[in-house]
């Protein structure tokens, strides 16, 4: 049995749902009895001496660096980084830029000690300087998460985010919103309401911290589209296409200025007519089943772990 310790708070949030709980749970389902998986921020002696693989996510603090150095000194375990954001390349307009930029040096030191990387996007392989010790394992869903048909033609559109996502709206979405706000019967702003010149067709939905509940609501809402404006920079180039996946899960399309870029090939750059949107949703569903399938990516994780553990740990 392979013992894995994920160094993360054992809670259900967006990061743990997409990168740990669902994919590693699916991996464990496919290979029963093969894995013993634990998620914690507090390691004890047994963890340090009896663990085969430690998995980190977005590490950038001095305590984590010391812990990683100790794991490497022991020479017993491999260290895997599963990362989904460019935490060493945060733009200055980002809400948490000062926090991450002040810790970028520490994060890079931890990167250097990491044996292998799983990244959610290709750009992150470059950001983490791990082309020769990493692979892209994209965010994925089960085929059963996708509806059987496109959302009905009701003109329901959604934007989801918190304060941290508002800058993308202000810097690269305000002009677009002026053009499209009246083409929608009902706008749902899920989480917060950006300060734009709105019409009277908006509804504000409370952000649900229960991720499982959120996705259940997303699928039942049957939105015709999800709007995802993004500032064109390397930080967003490294972000995954979750908004497009969510749109497809709801039966709609994703409207984004990133349409056509890698992993955003099936997003749309203009608000489409309904017949076109249905066709685009069908293409998106097929693409997710082929390329963003949780069963397939879980199997890739298993193969990757087997390969990692068959090579000797690197001592420092």
List the helices and strands and how they pair.
Elements: E1 2-7, H1 14-30, E2 35-40, H2 45-50, E3 53-56, H3 62-74, E4 78-83, H4 97-102, H5 104-113, E5 116-119, H6 122-127, E6 134-136, E7 156-160, H7 163-172, H8 174-180, E8 186-190, E9 202-205, H9 211-221, E10 225-227, H10 234-237, H11 242-250, E11 253-255, H12 274-291, H13 294-309
Parallel strand pairs: 1-2, 1-3, 3-4, 4-5, 5-6, 7-8, 7-10, 8-9, 10-11
Plain-language structure description:
This protein is an alpha/beta fold. The protein has 2 domains: 2-140 and 294-309, 3-Layer(aba) Sandwich (Rossmann fold), CATH 3.40.50; 143-291, Glycogen Phosphorylase B (Rossmann fold, 3-Layer(aba) Sandwich), CATH 3.40.50. The chain contains 13 helices and 11 strands. The chain has helices at residues 14-30, 45-50, 62-74, 97-102, 104-113, 122-127, 163-172, 174-180, 211-221, 234-237, 242-250, 274-291, 294-309, and strands spanning 2-7, 35-40, 53-56, 78-83, 116-119, 134-136, 156-160, 186-190, 202-205, 225-227, 253-255. The longest helix has 18 residues, at 274-291. The radius of gyration is 20 Å and the shape is globular.
Characteristic key phrases:
16% strand, Rossmann fold, alpha/beta, 5-stranded parallel β-sheet, 316 residues, 42% helix
